[in-house]
Amino acid sequence: MSAGNTPVSLVLTEDQESIRRVARDYVQRSMPTTHLRALRDADDALGYAPACWSELAGLGVAGMVFPESVGGVGLGFAELGVVLEECGRTLAPTPIVSTVVLAGGAIALGGSEAQRQQWLPGVCAGERVLALAHDEGTRHARYRVATRAEPVAGGFRITGEKTFVLDGHGAEALVVVARVDGAVGDRTGLALFVVPASSPGVAVTRTPTVDSRNVARVRFDGVVVGVDAALGAPGDAADVLDRVLDRGAIALGAEMLGGALEAFERTVAYLKTRKQFGVPIGSFQALKHRAAQLFCEVELSRSVVLAALRAIDAGGPDVPVLAAAAKARTSDTFVRVAAEAIQMHGGIGVTDELDIGLFYKRAKVAAMTLGDGAHHRDRFARLHGY
Prior knowledge:
single chain; Butyryl-Coa Dehydrogenase, subunit A, domain 1
C-alpha cells in the first residue's frame, strides 16, 4: 500500500514499538476497564480523569504531533496512533481526539503563529482541554453548518447550536465552525473561531452517552468575538476543516482498532477455555469459521489505519481517501467484532459482569462519531468521482 507514490511500511519501527510498550504499560496499569467503570458509576462530570490526562501529557502524548516550537515532541500521527490503539484496548477515556487532533489540529493548521503560541503550549502540557464544535444534527455532515457568524464592529457575533461536541462540557475553549456566507451545505463560506467557553452567551449542556463517555450540546446566543478569534480568513476555512476531520476520523479509527483487537482476543481466549460437551467450544467448526472471519476483518482494519496514519505524516495526497476507508472499515469491524463477541460469550456476554458489553457500547458510539461506515463509504465513492 502507498501514500501517493511513496511506499508505506505496515510494520512498526523500533521506536514505535517502544512507544507501544510504554503506552501499554501506563494504560493497562492506570486506565484499565475498571477505570472506565469507576467513572461511569460515579457519574463523573468530565468522563475522564484529569490526573491521568496530565500523566499521559507528561509522557509526551499530548504534544506528540506538535512541533517543539510550541512545546510539542515533534513526532507524528503514526506514533500517536500507536497510543490511541492502546487506549482503545482498555476503553481508556481521554481527550486526545477532541483536544489534540480536532481542536488543537485546527489551531495548528489554520491559526497564526500568535494563536498557536497562545493555545498549543498548554495543550502539549496537558493543561488545556479544547473541543471542536462542528456537528449540528443527529448525524455527521461535514458542511451542514447553519451557525452564523455576522460581522460586527471589531469582530463577529456567533449564533447557533452544536451537538455531539466531544469533551465540550470540560473544554476551556471551543473551536467553532460557523458560516459567514452561503447556504447550509455549501463548502464555501465557512469560518473557524476560537471561543472561550466562559464567554457571555455560551451555554454548554453535558450529554452522557451509552458508552459512559460525555459529549455536549453547545448553544451560542449572540456570542461576540474579536477578529483575532478567527483562524485564518473567515469564509475560507473548508480546506482546514477537511484536513482536521480527516485526521480525526483516522485517529478515532486507530482507537477503534485497539478496541476491536481487544474484544477479539478476549473472545478467542474464552473460546479456548469455555467447555461444552466436555470440549472447548473453540473446537466447534462453526465458531472457528466465525473467529477466522473476524481475524481477517481486524487485520484489514489494521492495514488501512496504519496506511492512513503514515499518509498524514508523509503529506500524501490520498489522505482524504484513506481517511474515508479507515473510518468506514474500523466502524464496521469494531461493531461486528463486539457483537460477535457477545454472541460467542453466550448469556454472560450481555451482562454488566463482563466487559464485552462495554466494548459493544463503545463500538456503537465511536462508529457514529465523525461519520459512520455508510457516510465514509459514500465519501470514498465521491472522492473517486462517483
